[in-house]
């Protein structure tokens, strides 16, 4: 993905979910010294290796970049056309025998550095104040692709003070395609609640990060981890169906009612329901007619999953049915970019597509639309509904436009009330603050990449929703 600069996805975290004082991992002097000097631990007899028929992480990434050289296909999949563009260039091999952090740091502490003459002890209380997440703060998780660098950044937003800053971040080993907050922590025996974030990437694994832990280099949990065997152990036949996805993970949805369940949609056209307590697939829903680009659990019914595919299919699946047959279905031209439920009227939902069309659907009328129209000139990557203001809908697209809509109660019609071109390039994602009615964040591809927008500052919006 050389040359790509974008926010691929973002998500708000509700107030009160994040830990007030996050945990902070600190390396002891010996480990930090090893890191600085580039020390490599000696291998042991217990060292593991990949199965013969599996690729290492680096080889997998290389394979994705040069997939045409590895696997012959009659035609590219919709996923490859959308995401693999610019990703088929050769990776320059890293020189062997890295020297760790030499040249960046030479001493593990200031006390060991002869050039530091003034030794100042850190003030623990001051540090706590700097990293504190207050009860009226929201956290915003942002998945960022910056050419060859992939990061997950955690921002803090405070409505009262208009504070907005990057609190901490994590380095990812593959391009992030989708993220999803998860407030169920299988490691928390007291409450079972947590501040986790699932990340779907180009590889087939799902990495779950604990946002309450700073400075960590590894995820809290990995789902669908590639099987490894101990050297000398008997070889087992690989069963892909038991391992989750066999291709990139491009959509995620956490079940707020059955909190230990996370759904993932893949480029392999399947949906996997993960049991977070067991860290393994509980159910695999077969081919849904295309790569699963977007999905959302019903806000009130724990078993209904709304999904959209790159083949233009929109399905409502009852996950109690192992067959995966849709309870309601629609077929449209173009790729489905986003689907969301209308939580003010849970019989209905909205969907957007890459031909710029916005649609309002009723689950009781499969195959029909309550309303449809052209909302953007090109793909609509962001579609979000206010958590508190009824009918306040926002779309953003690759035409760099943000459009604000009002959804009518009577007939399900949709009226545009405001339109504005933002200055952060093509727009790929947007989401309303769950605690503030008219504040949303938008992710783009230029300048500062992300924008916080307060719609109460727009007179046409205020007028439309005060009537």
From TrEMBL:
Matching Pfam families: WD40
One record GO biological process: rRNA processing
Keyword Phosphoprotein carried by entry: yes
Region (Disordered): 37-76
Alphabetical UniProt keywords: Phosphoprotein, Repeat, WD repeat
Gene3D superfamilies for the chain: YVTN repeat-like/Quinoprotein amine dehydrogenase
Compositionally skewed regions (Basic and acidic residues) per UniProt: 58-71
Biased composition (Acidic residues): 44-57
WD repeats: 242-284
Annotated InterPro entries: PWP1, WD40/YVTN_repeat-like_dom_sf, WD40_repeat_CS, WD40_repeat_dom_sf, WD40_rpt
GO CC, any one term: nucleus
PROSITE patterns in UniProt: WD_REPEATS_1, WD_REPEATS_2, WD_REPEATS_REGION
Name of this protein: WD_REPEATS_REGION domain-containing protein
Naturally occurring in which organism (per UniProt): Caenorhabditis elegans
Name of the gene encoding the protein in the UniProt record: pwp-1
């Amino acid at each position: 993905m050389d040359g790509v600069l974008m926010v691929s996805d973002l998500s708000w975290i509700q107030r009160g979910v994040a830990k007030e004082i996050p945990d902070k991992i600190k390396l002891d002097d010996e480990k930090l010294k090893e890191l600085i000097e580039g020390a490599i631990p000696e291998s042991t007899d217990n060292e593991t290796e990949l199965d013969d028929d599996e690729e290492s992480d680096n080889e997998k990434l290389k394979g994705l970049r040069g997939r045409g050289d590895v696997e012959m296909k009659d035609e590219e999949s919709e996923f490859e056309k959308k995401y693999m563009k610019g990703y088929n260039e050769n990776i320059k091999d890293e020189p062997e025998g890295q020297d760790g952090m030499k040249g960046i740091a030479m001493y593990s502490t200031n006390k060991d550095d002869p050039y530091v003459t003034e030794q100042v002890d850190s003030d623990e209380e001051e540090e706590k104040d700097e990293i504190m997440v207050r009860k009226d703060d929201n956290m915003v998780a942002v998945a960022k692709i910056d050419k060859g660098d992939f990061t997950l950044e955690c921002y803090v937003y405070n409505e009262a003070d208009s504070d907005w800053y990057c609190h901490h971040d994590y380095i990812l080993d593959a391009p992030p395609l989708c993220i999803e907050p998860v407030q169920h922590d299988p490691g928390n025996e007291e409450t079972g609640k947590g501040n986790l974030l699932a990340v779907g990437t180009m590889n087939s694994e799902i990495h779950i990060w604990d946002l309450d832990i700073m400075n960590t280099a590894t995820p809290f949990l990995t789902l669908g981890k590639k099987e490894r065997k101990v050297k000398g152990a008997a070889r087992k036949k690989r069963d892909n169906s038991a391992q989750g996805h066999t291709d990139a993970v491009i959509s995620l949805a956490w079940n707020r009612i059955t909190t230990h369940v996370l759904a993932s949609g893949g480029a392999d056209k399947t949906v996997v329901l993960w049991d977070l307590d067991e860290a393994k697939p509980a159910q695999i829903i077969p081919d849904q007619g295309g790569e699963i680009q977007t999905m959302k659990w019903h806000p009130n019914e724990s078993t209904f999953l709304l999904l959209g595919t790159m083949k233009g299919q929109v399905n409502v699946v009852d996950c109690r049915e192992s067959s995966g047959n849709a309870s309601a279905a629609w077929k449209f031209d173009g790729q489905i970019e986003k689907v969301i439920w209308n939580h003010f009227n849970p019989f209905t939902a909205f969907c957007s597509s890459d031909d710029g069309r916005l649609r309002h659907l009723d689950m009781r009328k499969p195959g029909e639309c309550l309303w449809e129209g052209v909302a953007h000139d090109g793909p609509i990557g962001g579609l979000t509904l206010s958590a508190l203001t009824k009918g306040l809908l926002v779309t953003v697209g690759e035409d760099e436009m943000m459009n604000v809509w009002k959804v009518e109660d009577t007939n399900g019609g949709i009226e545009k009330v405001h339109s504005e071109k933002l200055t952060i390039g093509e727009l790929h994602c947007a989401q309303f603050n769950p605690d503030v009615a008219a504040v949303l964040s938008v992710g783009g591809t230029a300048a500062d990449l992300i924008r916080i927008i307060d719609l109460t500052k727009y007179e046409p919006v205020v007028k439309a929703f005060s009537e």
